[in-house]
Specification:
The structure is a homodimer of 407-residue chains. Chain A has 407 residues and is α/β, with parallel strands linked by helices. Chain A folds into 3 domains: 80 residues, Winged helix-like DNA-binding domain superfamily/Winged helix DNA-binding domain (Arc Repressor Mutant, subunit A, Orthogonal Bundle); 144 residues, 2-Layer Sandwich (Nucleotidyltransferase, domain 5); 156 residues, Nucleotidyltransferase, domain 5 (2-Layer Sandwich). Chain A contains 16 helices and 16 strands. In chain A, the strands form 4 sheets. Chain A has a 5-stranded mixed β-sheet, sandwiched between helices. In chain A, helix 1 crosses helix 3. The longest helix of chain A has 26 residues. Chain A starts with a helix and ends with a helix. The interface between A and B is large, with 49 and 49 residues. Chains A, B: It holds the Pfam family ROK. Chains A, B: It comes from Aeromicrobium wangtongii. Chains A, B: InterPro entries: ATPase_NBD, ROK, WH-like_DNA-bd_sf, WH_DNA-bd_sf.
């Protein structure tokens, strides 16, 4: 409150400018192409201020101005177009029980390079870290020289403590209180600490920003992997809960004397619709559950057992509709391949169990980002510090990831 | 944007003053007693502005200033205390399937008078309206002359469309798309239209403002009546959903081939823990479910059947913990009487089915407002226009409710 006058004012103005710079970058990052006139309108700042901010982003290598596109705003000169440039990128990691994907993602959410590999058996966090680093080395090859690595985001199928990236529980990895952010961060060295997010939360974030839920304020992303989780967006904000652990829909009690779940309880919803249940229903051998996606691609007609899985899926979705009254439910992970096969059963169960008022408002849909929702969400998480303060983040960014990862 | 200069400025200042007046009144309304110094600190306005606002509230009959209480703020003179006065009141209605309560509630959430009666058989909305009006006539007798009736709030066990108070569905009243706000509003005449809210939402609101959840940002109020619903507060805000229908936890699928629910589906949670299930477990005859509360008071040891209801309650609560990660879960309605009888079973099921990270953050508790949570919530809903603009609301308030209700 009692900071020295001039310095105080100077800092505040500089703070505002940095904040505005980040906001402009955010708009550019989330739109494929945007005119300076649109930016001016969205931000409520005057044209010369916007022109100055865009020029600064250009000099930072984060944006470029292009010839006007066809559309004109009003009667005047056509406005200059602004789009993201690849002067900054992040590394996004999608850690699934059955596979590992790492991508180099540029501003604008562009996947520049990707690599996938198996998850080491036993799910040892150090062994997984080794694999993540191997994949990272692959995707940072051929990065534009001098381009800034501004963050690492990791999607994990578990419950994450936000402040330090401790994985409280990832039942299907058999992890309890594993400090994965710290383990990976130690190996990343000068690249800095990674940010971890729950896979379903990241799927929801990405589908909300660039997928099937753009402009939708109430959205549920159902992540159907070995386990089943939900990322929930409510009135435009992530549903966090008291500790950030909300959304563990896979562990809703579903069958009183159902199968044993990896969490230790019996009859959780995911024991009836998760990968193991699907595998059993289509005769995929247990040791090949990791390739369940491929197996499902080869199924063209649902067996009675698979239709039963579909009915369980629909009945659970109806519960989500009744509880959360969302506008959109996105079926991610294996549910993408499963749902077209059993759509009739799913729809019928939803119709029976969902209350009309909520049912008539909801749309159940496939992800707009295909199988990459979680990966894109991890990238968005990693981009957040850059969008909060582009100049500050760039100042400490890693400019030679290949060297940093060679250690 | 282009309003005339002076008038524009004048209006804005007046708007700000009215808004501040409402904010002061809100603080006074929510605290039993508050010093002017505390008000000054909470609102960040200067002392003379606060003194002026309090004096205006006093002249409106909404607040009174009292001798300083013992506690001093700082070293100066003790600050003057401010508390609510009964110059304005609301009528709050708690419409349950098994009974009707109407209360006259003054500022500060003080129940000045209450009356209860049965709900007409058949649940005809016009007949219920007649009963509501009869009870209202009882509670407005002996109201302080000139005191302003500033709103009517009604808690309904159903799904309400916020904009017009249409009851989309109240399964246990057999109501579908009943325009109850309009039906009641026509009879209220000069008193004005009532505001309807879902009973569980109102319970959550009241427990958050004055009950077991004061200061808690993530709270679930479970309303156990004939049906079971949840009012959910997330990060301090009501969980609405796309149409305001969120929280229908009673219709979570719970037993695949369970009993037929009033909603038309089978196996909803409320068929296992609602009033009918409890009545069956304690041998309360079906025709006396309306007096289930009294029956439960007479039970001192849980039968095996009742313990089974307790296990179902605990298992469902675990699902809520996993899905929403709340800090507090308040057990309202019949669950107040039930839960002490079966606490061990409830706790055990929660421990088995709730994920540790979320379980260790949650507290399951009885309502701070006893059986009046919904009634208080209905009153809070009715007070909202007064707290938004005290002068404007008082200008059109009904000053003689007895006469208005005599029509």
């Amino acid at each position: 409150m009692a900071s020295a006058g001039r310095a105080g004012v100077g800092t505040n103005q500089e703070d505002i400018r940095r904040h505005n710079l980040g906001t402009v970058l955010g708009h550019v990052h989330r739109s494929e192409r945007l005119s300076r006139a649109e930016l001016t309108a969205r931000m409520g700042l005057n044209r010369s201020t916007i022109a100055g901010l865009v020029t600064e982003l250009e000099s930072l290598g984060l944006a470029e101005q292009a010839k006007p596109s066809g559309a004109r705003i009003g009667a005047g000169r056509p406005s200059v177009d602004v789009k993201a440039r690849s002067g900054a990128y992040v590394l996004a990691v999608d850690l699934r029980v059955d596979g590992l994907t790492v991508a180099r993602v540029g501003l604008g959410g562009i996947i520049q390079s990707r690599a996938t590999g198996p998850v080491p058996q036993g799910h040892d966090p150090h062994a997984i870290t080794d694999s993540v680093l191997d994949l990272m080395r692959l995707v940072v090859k051929d990065v534009e020289p001098g381009s800034a690595l501004v963050g690492v985001g990791v999607g994990v199928p578990g419950i994450i403590r936000a402040e330090d990236g401790l994985v409280r529980l990832a039942p299907n990895l058999s992890w309890r209180d594993v400090p994965f952010a710290q383990i990976l961060g130690e190996r990343l060295g000068s690249i800095g600490m990674p940010v971890l997010g729950n896979d379903a939360d990241l799927g929801a974030l990405a589908e909300h920003l660039r997928g099937a839920g753009v402009g939708v304020e109430d959205l549920v992303y159902l992540s159907g992997e070995v386990g089943v989780g939900a990322g929930v967006i409510v009135s435009g904000h992530k549903l966090e809960g008291a500790g950030g652990y909300a959304g563990e829909i896979g562990h809703m009690p579903f069958l009183p004397d159902g199968k044993l779940c990896h969490c230790g309880a019996h009859g959780c919803w995911e024991t009836e619709i998760g990968a193991e249940a699907i595998a059993l229903a289509i005769g995929c051998p247990a040791e090949r559950v990791g390739a369940l996606g491929e197996f499902l691609e080869g199924v063209h007609e649902a067996s009675p057992d698979l239709r039963q899985v579909g009915r369980h899926l629909g009945r659970g979705i109806a519960g989500i509709v009744n509880m959360l009254n969302p506008r959109v439910i996105v079926l991610g992970g294996y549910l993408r391949s499963l749902s077209p096969l059993v759509q009739e059963d799913v729809d019928q169960e939803i119709a029976v169990h969902a209350l009309t008022a909520s049912h008539e408002l909801v749309r159940v849909t496939l992800p707009g980002l295909g199988g990459d929702s979680v990966l894109h969400g991890a990238a968005e998480l990693a981009f957040e510090p850059l969008l909060a303060d582009p100049v500050g983040r760039l100042a400490t960014a890693c400019r030679d990831a290949e060297a940093a990862l060679a250690v």
